[in-house]
Structure prediction request, 330 residues.
Amino acid sequence: MNFRDNLLPDKKYITSWISAGWTNDVMTYINLIYLGIITDRIPIVAMFTPSHIGGAVPPIPFGDVFDVPRLRQLLKRPVLEWREVKDSSSRELDDLGCWNIWEAVQDREHYPRHSVVPDMLSIDISYTKAPKWLKLIPNFEHDMHSTFWSLAVLGFPEGRRDNLVPPRESQHHHVMLPPDEQVLCYDYLYYVCAAQPFEFDFDYSPAWRYVGQYMRWTPQLEALVDHYVRRTIGVSDGEVTPTWIAVHIRHGDFKNWCGNVPIEDCFAPLSVIARRVQEVKEEILEKKGIVVEHVIMTSDERDEAWWASVRSRGWFQVDHSETVEQYGAW
Prediction:
């Protein structure tokens, strides 16, 4: 069965693919859903790929991580997953015409942004190169952002028609298809903003305000978190889980950015992290009236002396020695 057989003929849809690390992939899907809002299209969200844990691990559906029913309710709009549109075990290769944004915003790679997701979904894509005017900062090689509304233009009949060029041949069926009109498709939506690059850092960010803030972990993940928190802190059965905040310190691959600077001078010392933790505690107390009782540290740091210093501050370290065996690599 072709995925189109599961689409409503009177509805329009939008989709895209991920191609980065997990955090960036989450932001990419947030951008996709927001673009669906402003184009009045139903987003079809694909899975997460194991970019950070190894290709031997299967992907995990978006809805196994984030609470999609809750998201639909709060957005007051439908949000679909690809597993609801196409059987994940289907090997039928479906054709789809998509916009190639990647070549419009950078000049180093002369092809669409690569993603393993279309192959996982058995979708054979014919890409059409998008116009250069999509790029937020013209001719600036150090940034690759386009804007939501410039991309939205391509999702409407006039904008689509006025920017069509001969499409690239698809990889498998060798067909040349213009961008699909019912399923608006882009190769990559991480580098998208409303006003300035990487605006997730700012309070006006529309992708965050209208989508991101409504995304929550699934109830199953929330329960798993509570289980680990209680075990880590040492909460007895029947007791209420105390207030806590978590700090994640990423050292593993970040040391590659230190260059010739010694690690101890490159990474923030625990004393600095402790100061920031205290600032967060004070802010939570001031804004929410909540006293944070515990601090849980997570990190890929393997230096036991560093961890000893963490514990000496009264902070907790999570025991993940059996996590993979019990719950899988994800």
Observations:
- The chain is about 30% helix and 15% strand.
- Residues 3-214 form a domain with the Rossmann fold fold (CATH 3.40.50).
- The chain has a mean pLDDT of 96.
